[in-house]
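Okay, any thoughts on this one?
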Amino acid sequence: MTVKSSSPSVPRWARKSTLVLVIAVLALAVFGTTTQTWLTVHLDPTQLGQGVGSQDGLQVQGSKAATTVTALALVALAGGLAASIAGRIARWVITAIILLAAAGIVGAAAVVQADPLAAAQGSIAAATGISGSSVQVGVTAFPALAVVAGSLLGLSALAIVPAGRYWKTRTKYDTAATGTHSGSTAPAGPADEIESWDRLSRGDDPT
């Protein structure tokens, strides 16, 4: 006779370790894009200052073109790790936080793609001392990668709540129940000891 387990099997996508790992990898991927060159500014040779190391142009990292993306990626990473130990209500809050972070990442990266010149103005002014210059700005593939990773991050966050139904949580009540079922006995208190002495004084056997 085969005995079937009453506990439902956990789908692969709903496993806590899998989902937390996916969120962490996507958040780190977004963070990694901000360390790379997002924009290449082609300046006139007469405008090149000491901040431009070569004639190839000014390289603008993602952390400078979209400063909020770095911070939002770290927020999403922390949220994903916190979801692994959070309760049911806390997971709703964490889901909302990661969704907002993902939306901010996608929005900031999309703005850089839509208007790269505006995103590069701060770096241009710092390198040349001239703001409002009319220059050519090239966009690399990293802003698009940030948009893709941010979108996947948001989809992963939406999976936290339904996946959380399969996650087991241990509370102090579970611990108390475990102690009861294991047959543990609480030690005798002062009142029990007094009652035993009274029974002894009357000649009764307290055992």
